[in-house]
Every structure is written in structure tokens, then in C-alpha cells.
Write a structure and sequence with these properties.
Layout (H helix, E strand, L loop, with lengths): L7 H15 L5 H9 L7 H14 L2 H4 L18 E3 L3 E10 L4 H12 L2 E4 L2 E4 L30 E6 L5 E6 L15 E4 L2 E4 L2 E4 L4 E5 L3 H24 L5
Parallel strand pairs: 6-9
Antiparallel strand pairs: 1-8, 2-5, 2-7, 3-4, 5-6, 7-10, 8-9
Helix pairs in contact: 1-2, 1-3, 5-6
Length: 244
Amino acid sequence: MMITPTSSPALTQIITHLTTTFSVTPTQNWVTTFLSTQKPTTRLPSLLATAKVRFLNAEITTAFEPSNCLPSDIYNATLKERRVQGPIAVQVLDVNDLTQSRWAQIEAIEAAERGEGKKGREIIRVVPGGEQAEDGSASTSTHPSIAGGEGGGGTCKVLLQDPKGVRAFGIELRSVKGLKVGMNIGSKMVLKNVIIARGVLLLEPETTTILGGKIETLHKAWMEERKADLKASIERAREDGGLA
């Protein structure tokens, strides 16, 4: 069946499909803009597949409805602990493995730059998921470090941002699949029933789902800046007689 991308049924179907698939809802403005870029003859399955990829790669503050967000008083350090039901959509702005050496983190970043991931102990070549095929179909596959790979094995601290632009740090209590240095910056996550302790999100596999996605400009800038910071830190440690 052919569908007209600018039609109201298409808009409603995309919103429903994305909400059902990811447990978070896109803004009507984002869907309308997306539809304006599609050919009128695009078939519905291809339209939905492309929308999923574009949605996860979009800036969260413009594409995601701010209906469920981080608490407005999340920085209140007097609140020892509370549980927030969600689902809350967030995007990753920074990731740091607190248990890895600086050199190990540099190697993880460079492996991601080369398109390499790990499956167990085996290094594999990653084929990035395409946004849209020539026939209009789209792939929803993502980098294994996001969707299909393993956790880093250490303890990661991440900087997260919700649809309202509120930022907060999250830290792994237990390893979350796909959360590690080298993952895509701009990747989207959904938090459900998550605990916030003195302003910090406590991440566990049961409360944290990584959806995937990537914001290319943020990712490239982060890779370059993070490597430079790590190398500078190593040099300072050497000058001070410390370890990297």
C-alpha cells in the first residue's frame, strides 16, 4: 500500500509506531518535518523503518515529547534516595569508565573509530546500520557497542540529558549492556523505575534500556576532545611520576 507522507494517517501511524516500539513519544512537529522529507510514494513499512532510525539519531530536545522527564528538583542533594517510574528518555552526552586506565579508554575510542567491536574476546568488524536504502527501506541496526555488544566490564559514569534539556549524571550499579567507552554519543536510553540518589541516577539492567542512535556532530567532537584530554592527562601523570 502506498501512503502519502504528508497525510494525517501517516503522521498518526508513525507516532503510534515509535511510541509502541520505544516506550517514548515523538513530537508532532518532528514527525511533520520528517514526513516533509519523504517521497509521496514511499510505502508505509519503509516509512516506519526510516522514521525509527531518524528518531534515534535526532536531538532529544526537539524530537522527543517532554511528557516524562527527570524531576525538576533532581539536583536537590538533601533528597537521599527516590525512585522515578518513567519511562524517561535521555541521550548520552559523555561516558567515562571509572575502572579503566586512560590508555585502555583511548584504545576503546580508537577501536570504535576503526569500526571495531568485541563479541566476547573476539574483535569483529562493525558494519554501521544504514539510514535508508535505495528502495526507501531502512535498517534499524546500530553499532554493537550500543545494541548488540557487551558492557565494558567496568563501572561507567555517564552524562545524560532529557527532552527538557535537564542534565544529570548516571552511574552503573551493575553492568548495563552496551554502556561503555566507545559507544555512540547521542545514543538514546529509556529509564524505568530508576533510583535517584542525591541527584545521581543509579543504572541497572532492569531499569536502563539502550535504544541506540547517534548524533554525528556530538559524537565526532566528543571522540576528538576525549582522546586529547586522556592523552594530556597521561602526559601530566608521567611528568608527576604517576601511572597512566
